[in-house]
Specification:
single chain, 521 residues, mainly alpha, Ribosomal Protein S8, Chain: A, domain 1, Hypothetical protein af1432, 4 domains, three-stranded antiparallel β-sheet, three-stranded mixed β-sheet, 16 helices, 8 strands
Length: 521
């Protein structure tokens, strides 16, 4: 703090009113004088001696300056003392650390010397071991040479002789043990597999009553029949155009037959015709109205059936679009087997097998539920391809999509779950009474099976038996040897798989009979 500042402060304390600036004592510098004129306005009473006031202020300022200087010196001494103490402490700490580093360096040096000594000792021991090993090897070679001279056999000849003797003694025992083990494993495996499959089939039994699509509608009288036809056949033409179904009224006088490759459209047409017959007012506008109404009703029915199917197998968080597609199973049959009945039965069988074998039950459940979804989807390709393409839109797990893609062995199995879905589908589809087909289709399939086998030049005759589930092929023994039978069976199997559609599986049996005869004279 400067003397002028101290003086200005004291003057402010003593003055009570502001007036014009005063001049300081002569002898001050011009700069200090200008500062005081600008910043220190005071009022001095005429009775107060100006010189005395200035002298007093100067004395006070000097006294305060001395106090400040003394205080600053004391503070500087304190800071210096503290700095010296801190430096001394840091120096002591550095000395301690230096001593510690020296001790550690000495310890490391000692350890290095010990390691060097141990390394030298190990190298010496290793050299002794190598020398001993070479000596033993030389002695062994010498002994072998002596033994070969005594036995008149080389080492390799002696080994072969010993192995021959062991094989002769143990061949029969080994064959007996292998046969017994194989037979026992086969019997146990067959019993276990039979138990698992029977238990699964019993669990798959369902109380669902399959509702086959009804494609005929009864007509109460001839008048109703005439209203359905309409003037010049107008109503029936409009009905066929809107519904997409063919209408036949010539097969029976009291019913109308509806035919279409789309089972859902056929069901909508059936419901529409029933409503029209009940209403009695049959004309183009009424047909369109009832068709749209029936379409919504059937869609609601299908969604409810799909939801019921999902809940029946324990699936409660399925996408609504998938549920709606699954509901179409109600009006779809495969070889006479209703799709809802088949899916419900197959899923229960698959779940049971998965529980017994310790595989992922949820994956099997979803794979069985969705495996045939492609059968009710419009598009190009077989039902496996259509189903896989449809399910990929919903980001389902890959293992579930693999179950759908592999359930007819179109692709190699990638998991045990895929195998179980394939087995459950085969059990449900091929069990007695599960499916049926008309006589014409059955005969066509039997003939096609036999034709596939007869195409091969080695085949002499072929017979389809067991309702087309097995084909027995008789080959000409002069054109095919025993080693060619397996190759021929595989070729016929692959051609049947690629060119035919059939439920379950077809077994191919290739038979070659060789006869030898001599005449004694």
């Amino acid at each position: 703090m400067s003397i002028l500042s101290i003086f200005r402060s004291n003057i402010f304390k003593k003055s009570k009113s502001i007036s014009t600036p005063i001049s300081l004592v002569k002898g001050r510098s011009g700069e200090a004088e200008r500062d005081l004129k600008q910043t220190v306005p005071v009022v001095i009473s005429p009775s107060i001696d100006t010189a005395a006031i200035i002298a007093a202020a100067t004395a006070t300022a000097q006294s305060q300056a001395r106090e400040i200087i003394i205080s600053a010196k004391d503070e500087a001494f304190k800071v210096k003392d503290q700095a010296i103490k801190d430096a001394r402490i840091q120096l002591e700490d550095i000395e301690v650390r230096a001593k510690t580093l020296v001790q550690k360096q000495q310890a490391v040096t000692t350890l290095e010397e010990q390691l060097k000594k141990e390394r030298l000792s190990i190298e010496a021991t290793q050299k002794q071991a190598d020398d001993l090993k070479a000596k033993i090897s030389a002695q062994a070679d010498t002994m072998v040479e002596k033994l070969e001279k005594i036995a008149s056999l080389t080492t390799e000849q002696a080994k072969k002789e010993i192995l021959v003797q062991i094989e002769k003694r143990s061949a029969g025992e080994i064959a007996r043990l292998v046969k017994e083990t194989t037979e026992r494993a086969k019997i146990e495996a067959e019993d276990l597999a039979r138990e698992i499959l029977m238990d699964a089939m019993r669990a798959g039994a369902t109380d669902y009553v399959a509702e086959y699509t009804i494609s005929t509608v009864p007509i109460p009288d001839e008048e109703t029949k005439g209203r359905i036809i309409g003037k010049d056949g107008r109503n029936i033409r409009i009905f066929e155009k809107i519904s997409g179904c063919d209408v036949s009224m010539d097969d029976a006088p009291d019913e109308v037959k509806l035919s279409s490759f789309d089972p859902v459209r056929r069901e909508i047409a059936r419901v529409t015709l029933i409503h029209l017959i009940k209403d009695g007012r049959i004309h183009p506008a009424r047909i369109e109205e009832y068709f749209e109404r029936s379409k919504k009703d059937v869609e609601q029915i299908m969604f409810q059936e799909g939801q019921k199917l999902c809940h029946a197998v324990g699936v409660y968080n399925m996408n609504r679009d998938i549920i709606a597609i699954l509901g179409r199973f109600k009006f779809r049959t495969s070889y006479g087997q209703n799709m809802i009945s088949h899916t419900l039965e197959e899923t229960r069988i698959g779940i049971k097998i998965a529980n017994e074998t310790g595989t992922n039950v949820d994956t099997v459940r979803m794979g069985c539920l969705l495996h045939d979804i492609g059968k009710v989807i419009d598009g190009e390709g077989n039902h496996v391809e259509l189903g896989v393409q449809f399910l990929k839109k919903f980001n389902l797990p890959q293992n579930i999509i693999d179950c759908v893609a592999q359930h007819h062995e179109d692709e190699e199995f990638t998991s045990n779950e895929s195998v179980i879905v394939y087995i459950a589908d085969a059990i449900s589809g091929s069990r007695p009474g599960a499916r049926h087909e008309n006589t014409e289709e059955y005969g066509k399939r039997i003939r096609q099976l036999e034709e596939v086998a007869r195409k091969h030049p080695e085949v002499e005759e072929a017979y389809a038996i067991s309702a087309g589930r097995e084909i027995r092929v008789i080959v000409n023994p002069s054109k095919a040897g025993d080693e060619q039978l397996v190759i021929l069976a595989q070729a016929i199997r692959d051609e049947i798989r690629d060119t035919m559609t059939f439920p379950g599986s077809v077994k191919v049996n290739v038979i070659r009979e060789t006869r030898a005869s001599e005449i004694a004279n």
